[in-house]
Amino acid sequence: MDVTREQVRDGLRAARYITNARVETAVFLALVLEKPLLAEGPAGAGKTELAKVLAEMLQTDLVRLQCYEGLDEARALFEWNYQKQLLRIQADRAEGRGWDEVSHHIFSREFLLERPLSRAITAPRTVVLLIDEVDKADPEFEAFLLEVLSDFQVSVPELGTIRAQQRPVVVLTSNRTRELSEALVRRCLHLFVDFPGPDTEAEIVALKVPELDERLRVQVARFVAGLRKLDLRKAPSIAETLDWARGLCALGVHELDAATVRQTLALIVKHEEDLRKAESKVSTLLAAAARS
Amino acid sequence: MRARILDFVQTLRAEGVDVSVAETMDAARAVAAAGVEREVLRESLAACLVKNEDDRPLFDRLFDAAFPLVGAAREAGKRRKRVAGGDGAATRASGQGTAAGRGSLREEPGDIPRRARRREMPRDASEARRGRVARRLALIRLPFREFTARDVQEARDVVRELGRGLRARLARRERQARRGRLDFRRTIRSSLAMGGVPARPRFRARRPGRPDLVVLCDLSGSVAAASELLLGLIAPAAGWFRRSHLFAYVDRLCAVSIEDGHVAPEGVLDLHARSDFGRVLDELWHTHRDVLTRSTLLLVLGDARNNRRPPRAELLRAVGDRVERLVWIVPEPRARWDTGDSVLSRYAPACDAVFECVDLSALVAAVRQTL
C-alpha cells in the first residue's frame, strides 16, 4: 500500500486515536510491507481499538475473528453448506441428472460458507482483518493461521487455493496468556502497546470526554497512572478511565478529593482485593496527582 | 545501511535474540520504506526483529551502541559509558562501539537470568540448543536434595512450561469428556434440514463438575525446593479448578500465591520455625475446614518430619474422609521414610495415594496421575 508516515500519523489522529511514534511506525510498516501486525500488551491498552481505528482510517470494513478455546477451522476458515448441498442433490435427482454432473458442482464456491478468514481473503477490496486474542485459541489453531498470514490464501481441498484479490491488513492481538508459536510470531511485525503516560491519557480524556474540565482531567490521568503502578490484579484500562471521567462529570464533581475518589473507585477498580488495596492508597495517590 | 543492519543483526544474535533470515529481510525492507531518522529507525528495527518484549531493553542498549547519535557522539558515549562502567573505548565508531557494548553487557550483573544463561552458552545456535536440551534432561532427573540455588532458578522455567502443558491437558480432557451419549431426538430434528439424512449426529452435553483443589506445601529448608517447584507446576493449572487454595506451612498454615514462578506468602510465614504438621492439621481443620469439600482434591507435599511433636493423625483421617481425594507427595527416597523423626506411616493410611518424588520427573508424573 502506498502511504507515508505522515499520512499514517494524521490518519490515526483524524480517527481520534492518540498514540506515540512507536505505534505509528509499526502501523506504517504493516501497511507498506503488507505484513500482519501482532499487537501485544496489557488488557485495555487499546490493541483492539487500534484495528477498529485502522479500518476507519482506511475507510474500509473490519472483519473480526474473536478467538476462544476450541475455535476450529470450520468456524474460522470456511465450511461446506451441507444443507444446501443436500437440497441440490435431491433437486438434481428429481430432474434425473447423473452423479458426475452433480458431484461436479456441489463443491463450488456457491456451497461454501464464508467464515472471517475466508471473508477477509475473498473481499473485493482491502479490508482490515482483526484476529482478536490469538492467545486464547488453541496452539493448533495457529497452524491454520500460518497459510493465511504468510501467503494470504486459503486452501480448500475440494476446490483448490483461493488467493486474496486484495491483501487484507491484518492485526493480531494477544494478552500473552501463553507464548505464541515461533512460526506465527516470525511472520508478523511486533508491536507492544503499553498503557499511555499520564499526559497522553489526559489528551485521550480531553478528546473523548471534552466536558470534563482541564484541571480535573490531568488529576484523573495522573491518579490512574499511579493506580497502575500499584500491584493490582487488573490494572485499570483506558476505557475504565473514560468511564470514570464520565462518571465524575455526571456527578458534577469539580474537585478530586479523597471522599469522591472512594465513592467512585468502583468504576476503575473491579476486584474486591484490588479495591481494598487501592482504597488504602487513595490519599497518597491523590497527593502525588496534585503535585506537578 | 544494509551492511550496518546486517552487523546489527549479528550483534543481536550474539546476545541470544533469535533473528531469522526472513526477519532480517523484513528489517531491510522496513528501513528502506521508513527512512533512517533515528527514532523511526529504532522502532522499525524493533518491530521487525524483537518479537518478545522482554528483549526490548537489550535491543535498546545495543541499538544505542550500534547507531550512536550523530553530532552528539559525546552524549551517546556518556550514556554508553554508564552501561559499560567507564569503558573509555565506547565513544569510537559504530563497529567498535558495538563490540564495547557487548563486552560491557557480559560483565553486567543482575541482568535477566535467562539471558545470562544464554550468554554463557556456545555461539553456535544448534550446539546451544543441544546443550539446553541436555541440561533440561539432566535437571529433571536431578534429586531435589542436590539442588543448588541456580538449579532451582532454572527448574522454575522448566516447571512453568510444564504447568502450561498441564493446564492444556486438563482442558482437553474436559472437552473430550463433555461429549455425552447420542441425543436421538435432536439428531432426527437436525436431520430434517438435510432431507432426513442424519449427517450430523447430536450429542447430549455432559457438564462434568470441576473439582476444588487444595495444596499444602512444606516450605521448611529440607523440602523447600520441591515444594516451590510443585507450587510452580500447579499454579498455571490452578485457574482451571472450580476453586483453588494454595497453602504453605512450616509450623503454621499460610495462604500463598505464585507470582512469576516465585512463592509469595499472603501472611506471615516463619521459614526457620520447626516443622509441626500436627499443628498445621489442627489449623486446617479448625479454621479452614470450609475449603475442604466433597469434591476437593487435597495435595500434601512434605517429609512428615514432625520434630517429635504429636502427629495428630486422627485429624488427617477426618480430613481424608471429608475430601474426595487426599494425595501425599514425599520428596524423600522411600528408604528414608519413617526413619528418625519421620512419622509418615502414621499419616499414610489416611491418604488415597502416597507418591515418592525425589526428582522433577517423578513430581510431574505424580501430578499428572493425580489431576
Report on the structure:
- The complex is a heterodimer of chains A (292) and B (371).
- With 292 residues, chain A is α/β, with parallel strands linked by helices.
- Chain A has 2 domains: 5-77 and 115-192, Rossmann fold, CATH 3.40.50; 198-290.
- Helices cover 52% and strands 13% of the residues of chain A.
- Chain A has 14 helices and 9 strands.
- Chain A has helices at residues 5-14, 21-33, 47-57, 73-76, 82-94, 99-106, 116-122, 139-151, 182-186, 198-208, 214-229, 238-251, 258-264, 272-290, and strands at residues 37-40, 62-66, 78-80, 112-114, 128-132, 153-156, 160-163, 169-174, 189-192.
- Chain A has a 5-stranded parallel sheet with strand order 2-5-8-1-9, with helices on both faces. Chain A has a two-stranded antiparallel sheet with strand order 3-4. A two-stranded antiparallel sheet of chain A has the order 6-7.
- In chain A, helix 1 (5-14) crosses helix 2.
- Chain B is 51% helix and 13% strand.
- Chain B has 15 helices and 9 strands.
- In chain B, the strands form 2 sheets. In chain B, strands 6-5-4-3-7-8-9 form a 7-stranded mixed sheet.
- In chain B, helix 1 (2-14) packs across helix 4 (56-66), helix 4 (56-66) runs antiparallel to helix 6 and helix 12 (277-287) packs across helix 13.
- Residues 73-123 of chain B have low confidence and may be disordered.
